[in-house]
Amino acid sequence: MLKSCYQSVDEAGTDEAGRGCLAGPVTAAAIILPQNFRNSVLNDSKQLSETKRTLLRPILEKNAVSFSVCHVFQDEIDEINILNASFLAMHRAINHLEPLPSFIIVDGNRFKPYPNIEHECIVKGDGKYMSIAAASVLAKTYRDEYMEKIHEEFPMYNWKQNKGYPTKEHREAIKQFGLTKYHRKSFRQLPEQLTLDI
After folding, report:
1. Please, are residues 106 and 90 in contact by the beta-carbon 8 Å criterion?
2. CA dihedral for 158, 162, 165, 169, sign (positive or negative)
3. Which of 34, 124, 137, 182 has its Cα between 20 and 30 A from that of 86?
4. What is the sign, positive or negative, of the torsion defined by CA atoms of 143, 26, 163, 148?
């Protein structure tokens, strides 16, 4: 059973999706849930089926005190690296919370401090605390929706299915068709590559 709070009643949970992808944005969500919020289905988004994530999203949005989702796109990822882009996406999501939280809980073991708000990093936090699990579901569903949209432009990479992750099929498509404007040029796109022809 997920816990409702770590420390503060108006704390925000934050998490990201898409860090290990070859294409598309890294997407972060931040959410403040009411203290009495309970949901028996809610869990780390990776433990949930796509159907359950899709069902949960409107429930979370409706019940949240405040929530925000932010994409950081491939050009910015290439410029500042994926770790910094993940922190930036989380910060931008927190920026749009109204009201701002008094405390932030973050999934994982690293975070760049947000100005004037204390935080705690919690390893596997998306399986422990409701607000981090909720953020993981929002980040994942919004990112998946975006990847399905750009799939229409470049169907040969099958982003509708692989969501930009480095599947065998995705790598084969890169070999055959090269890179698109949505690919992260700073990532090692193919195992044998040394440099990119761009």
Report:
1. yes
2. negative
3. 34
4. positive
- Determine if residue 107 is labeled as part of a ligand binding site: yes
The model's pLDDT over 65-102, given as tens digits with 9 standing for 90+, comes to 999 999 999 999 999 999 999 999 999 999 999 999 99
> Cα–chain-centroid distance for residue 100?
20
Instruction: Enumerate the domain spans of the chain.
Output: 11-148
Residue 66 to residue 51: CA distance in whole angstroms: 23
Q: Which of 145, 122, 164 is nearest to 3 (CA)?
A: 122
Whether residue 16 is annotated as binding a ligand: the answer is yes
Return mean pLDDT, the chain: 94
- Contacts (Cβ under 8 Å, ≥6 apart) of 111: 87, 90, 104, 119, 121
Cα–Cα distances (Å) from 162 to 63, 173, 191, in that order, read: 30, 12, 18
Q: Which helix (H) or strand (E) holds 93?
A: helix 82-95
